[in-house]
Structures are given as structure tokens and as C-alpha cells.
Design goal:
Its EC number is 4.3.2.10, 3.5.1.2. By secondary structure, the protein is an alpha/beta fold. Helices cover about 25% and strands about 35% of the residues.
Length: about 210
């Protein structure tokens, strides 16, 4: 049976590109702002393009933060893409504007320290050994378009044992190091665009679908 995936339409994101990429790897895809559809799907994809604060305003307009929270509370998978990943963090600081995010992870989205911005084009990533999203994708390149990112990820990285497995964090470098992907139970995200990353992106989406 095909997995049912909802791409959340909140006015910001490469909706059709994401829809086509997911359909190509075998998902039954719906693009909608409907909260019930987002809650009921096997998987929810949260895309995002543009400024952090603008994306958060659009997300709140369709009750996105609460929908994401309810899915995660029930162990229902969510995948954030690009700014759709960034808004999962506590805060975003762009052009002097400090905006509140969804708060699923601690951390601040801020401008990268790099000689050339935006970071646009293909780049390698450094994934952990036990990754699920990047299984079979060692040394592959993925397509990035962004000037902002998360440079520190503290949750579960202190090495102390806890009741939950620590998040698996994938890193990339452009000027300095930034978070390129996170796998944290039902919540996964990528800073790059898998829907624009050719065969490597298709394999990553296939890996995600297999977890639904």
C-alpha cells in the first residue's frame, strides 16, 4: 500500500516540487492546509522558502505549530525541509528581527559566517554512522539554497544517558559548520532540498517513507 503523505500548504514552500518528488518515490501525496488531513496522513512534510518570520506567520495561520506538536506527541512522522526545518527550532534571527519558532528543538537560526552568501549549490554532508535518512548515501551531494542555519545543536549531545535516544545530527560546511539534517524520533528535517537533489534526494525520501 502507498503511504499517504500530506505536504502542508501554508503559503511558503516548493509545494509542487515536493509533491512530484514524493509521488515519484511511491507516496500518495496531498497538498493542503487542512488540519485534519495533516493530522491523519502517514507522514507530514513541512516545506519552507523565504524569511523565518514570514514562514512562521504563515504556519501559525493554518495552526501548523500545534498540528506538528500533536503529530509528534502521537509518534506520527514529520519531515521539515529548508526553512521548514529552521522553524522547528526555538528562534530565528534575520535582518535584526528575532522571531519565535515552533520550539521542537533548542537552537537559533542565524546568518552563516561565510565569504559567499547565499550558500547555493551542491554540497556533501557528514552523517552519523547509524543514520536512517542517509542510509546508502555516503559521499553523495545535496542541493542547498540558504544564507541562514543552525550552528550549534545541544539537545542530547552532552553524552549523558537519558530515557530517549539522542537526536542524530548531520552536518555540512560552508564557511563554518551548520546543521544539514536531524533525525529525532518521529521528527526529521533537512536544510537542503531533497526534491532538488536528484537521485540522492530521491533515495533520502525513499528512506523516510520506509519509516512511516
Amino acid at each position: 500500500m502507498k503511504k499517504k503523505v500530506t505536504v502542508l500548504d501554508y503559503g511558503s514552500g516548493n509545494l509542487r516540487s515536493a509533491e512530484r518528488a514524493l509521488a515519484r518515490v511511491g507516496a500518495e501525496v496531498t497538498v493542503t492546509a487542512d488540519r485534519d488531513a495533516a493530522l491523519d496522513a502517514d507522514g507530514l512534510v513541512v516545506p519552507g522558502v523565504g524569511a523565518f518570520a514570514h514562514c512562521m506567520a504563515g504556519l501559525r495561520a493554518v495552526d501548523g505549530p500545534r498540528t506538528i506538536g500533536r503529530r509528534l506527541a502521537g509518534g506520527r512522522p514529520v519531515l521539515g525541509i529548508c526553512v521548514g526545518m529552521q522553524v522547528l527550532f526555538e528562534r530565528g534571527v534575520e535582518h535584526g528581527q528575532d522571531a519565535e519558532g515552533c520550539g521542537e528543538w533548542p537552537g537559533v537560526v542565524e546568518q552563516l559566517e561565510a565569504p559567499v552568501l547565499p550558500h547555493m549549490g551542491w554540497n556533501t554532508v557528514a552523517a552519523p554512522a547509524d543514520t536512517v535518512l542517509f542510509d546508502g548515501l555516503a559521499d553523495e551531494r545535496f542541493y542547498f539554497v540558504h544564507s541562514y542555519g543552525v550552528r550549534e545543536f545541544s539537545l542530547g549531545q552532552d553524552g549523558r544517558p537519558g530515557p530517549l535516544a539522542p537526536p542524530k545530527v548531520t552536518w555540512a560546511e560552508h564557511g563554518d559548520r551548520f546543521v544539514a539534517g536531524v533525525e529525532n524520533g518521529a521528527l526529521s528535517a533537512t536544510q537542503f532540498h531533497p526534491e532538488k537533489s536528484g537521485d540522492a534526494g530521491a533515495q533520502l525520501l525513499t528512506n523516510w517513507l520506509a519509516t512511516l
